[in-house]
Write the structure tokens for this entry.
Amino acid sequence: MSTPLYLVVLGKQGAGKGTQCDRLAVLYSIPHVSTGDMLRAAVKAETPLGHEVASILNAGALVSDELVIRLVEERFAAPDAAGGALLDGFPRNLAQAEALQVLLGENGVRLCINLDVPIELATARLSSRRVCENCGTIYRDTDPSALSGVCAKCGGHVVQRADDRPEAIRRRLETYERDTAPLLDFYRSRGILVTVNGDQTPDAVTADIESAIGARDLA
Ligand code: ADP
């Protein structure tokens, strides 16, 4: 069997990680593992974990390292992650990055893709983002589905994420700079960081990521 393709996607909130991971998951036949999506699903399903993390998520703060590390470890045990995964929202700080090295082995992460966008663009994208509560489709606030509140794909409710309100956005971006940005050096020093300009069309961003993966013969 070929080496599993574990890819870490880093970038500010609003950089387009979710969109790109969905596309790359199809291209490389590996699952999109988003800790944020997993936590939101737990809140929606009102599981014990969901009850534990709901208020933390709404405030835009981080849940404990132990909890997300356990969540990721459990996710990796599923058969569909045996060939690798796209990690979106994890790791988010050095402790989580170290834990990931332990879970996957020193060379387990094959590439870290840094989706780079200016802070003004990230803020604008988050403020105008709306999402279908049911299927997760992302809309802009000016899209018909956002204006009507009814998802064009599944008929679900289109809402604003509680953490896409101004105070929570500010807090999340600050946390990114303080806790997550240092991971760029962590992966750079291991020779596996590639920075891609996130201020392009989604197709152009995907093409840049594909070239970076192709250039390293990873897939
Ligand atoms: P964003 O990156 O835009 O904040 P995510 O969907 O990745 O959105 O995460 C939503 C929320 O889930 C975070 O604000 C945080 O509360 C929690 N979360 C997700 N991933 C992690 C993580 N690796 N460590 C701690 N908390 C996390």
